[in-house]
Amino acid sequence: MPKESKVELKARTKKIFSQLQKMYPEAHCALDYANPFELLAATILSAQCTDARVNIIMKSFRPQFPNPKSLADADLKDIEEVIRTAGFFHQKAKSLKSMATDIVEKFGGKVPQTMEELTTLRGAGRKTANVVLGNAFGIAEGIAVDTHVTRVANRLKITKHQDAVKIEKDLMELIPKKDWTMATHYLISHGRKICDARKPKCPDCGIGELCPSRKIYHPEL
User: Is this model's pTM higher than 0.85 or not?
Assistant: First the structure.
């Protein structure tokens, strides 16, 4: 693909997401949650763990720790036992307890609704804050960037970066603010169903004509 101007890149990005919206009309946050606290806890647990596994863990987590105070007051060993299968459970248990303690002591028991406040919580970086703000509160503060978003955005050449913060900045410049939360879900859906890390299914891709990388994987196209 010849070098694009910013105007051309923005126009191609618009076409990409218009098509992704048609391809994945049911795209949504894959983590099961009933309130902002549950989503925050689940997102912290999801680091280097599948969403499916987190959803299983949350079935036990939810009744034992229904609110920040119950989690803040819990014994670390009890938290570890519930989340053991999440991987890195020692560190995650510490993060969860610290997060809940801060919510109780600093935020009146309510999950904060700003990027600045959320990212002061242990275990909650910018990606986690974006997930919570966008999905639990409907606040478009940024775009959550995970491994699927990183891979698909790079293959589509709508970013050239591997650093999540730089990728987010690129995407925020190309995508309307009202679409930031859903953009993550569309890219994740596409990464899971078509744009596989090892062998992307380019012949089955609905945005192949807009992707500069498809001939790298399928030269016959």
Answer: yes
